[in-house]
Design brief:
Number of helices: 10
Radius of gyration: 18 Å
Strand content: 5-15%
Order of helices and strands: EEHHHHEEEEEHHHEHHH
Shape: globular
Length: 296
Amino acid sequence: MQFDDDARLDTSEVQDVRGSRIPGGKATVGGGLAGLIALLLALFLGVGPDQLGLSSGSDQPAATASGLAQVQQSCRTGQDANARDDCRMVAVVNSVQDFWDQEFERRGGTYTRSPTVFFSQRVSTACGAATSAVGPFYCPGDRKVYLDLGFFDDLRTKFGAEGGPFAQAYVVAHEYGHHVQDLMGTLGRSQDGRTGANSNAVRVELQADCYAGVWAHHATTTKDESTGRPLITSLTDADVRDGLDAAAAVGDDRIQERFQGRVTPETWTHGSAEQRQQWFDQGFATGDMGRCNTFR
């Protein structure tokens, strides 16, 4: 995956709070065994820690800005995105939101942009305080995506994914799929408390995978406002395979087999490796969000 070297990155869509302290109370999910359990139970649920039972009870509304502001200083162009992981994520956020903005407009709607918050170790959100152990998530309370970039190392070392730039992009695009669901009123369908292979929780996650594939289909043709050219200039078959590999690595069956030695479909919240790949591929092959109705 390559970006246009001359494109200007919009860092206003990313809030970099790495190195900042959480205001208010401390999160209840820590590292070590507790963190591993949180990963097993909550990885890629895609919604805020309050809905996972991981909230600290703090009423702090959001993360505070860090004086470091690393991305604002370092991530200015597509050339930076081709050289640095954090700048690459800024570029992916820009591309994903450019696409959904244009797609909503094409369908006669209005897309509301959502910031991504880069944090390290702990963060306070409108959904409660959380640690990196929760994994990437979308908080509907403040309509923000939260991401500790260290998760991408976990994706390879703990979950066996091949990794690669597009595997990282898939993670971000999946979370923005939840934002699209939130805007369309479908995200709440996962909140009925049920789990299992046919639960609404699984259907919501598979739809977010499909939406990630829809963006990927259009990634090299969605024009960047700063240049009038696509921000992403190249997306290869190998890139797409990395995305599919990442989707499979976080399938419920793969995670359960790896960490508990058995597969229990009645507790699934995200779907199997095969389902996650299937729905990403559905979105990628068609480029049509109307083909992402996992509730049918």
